[in-house]
Specification:
Length: about 240
Amino acid sequence: MLGFFCVDGYSLQPNQRRQCLRRVAACVAGICTTDQISNFGAMKDNNKIAQAACLPGDLSKECIGVYKVPLSDAVESEWLTNKETLYTYAPDIRYIDVQKQVKQPETIAEAKKQLKSERVKIKFIREYVLDGELEEAGLLILSLIPTVTSAALKIQNYVEDKTSEEYQAQKELRKFQTSYEILLAEWSGIDIELGMAIRGQRGVTAVAQIEVLEYLKEATVALDDFIKLAELNVQRVSLG
């Protein structure tokens, strides 16, 4: 997958590969074009074709590092929520009941609590990576990403609905929206890196561990920044 977007992941310097993976991560998080998505079917896992895509909340190990259908589509689209229709139009995507699998907060208070509870998982992800248990780390991230996304979307939609058209308010909103996009890209970047490492595309485990820990550090900052901005923006629109 990385080769399609960046020619050759092994030839890139670490900072260049991180920039490259962030672009690919946007696709894994569901922020890319249809043409780019169509190329995921060409990804290979050693000698077999990798699963083209997964629904968010699918905790199968095969889903580590592959394209995830956007959460909003997965819970709203009729052809994604119906097992028979999904099999007809996208037989490569394993069906799961996303609405049951991914916790959907009903209130802003629940959404903020959900973000903070997922933040706790980072400690365990880091321990798995340090121990070389990359698959276990990947499975935790498969759980974390859609749970964080559902909470973040709840807060972002609330803030968007309550934000006025005044210039400064719109400026703050754009900053918050950018924080959300960075959050998804950073965590999806770890997902991609782990997938490549597990499939033997990162060489020895020690190299993969160093890279993943670097991504984890940046993704943790992105989550903390979003949590902080979420609190500030919810307060801002509540007072306004």
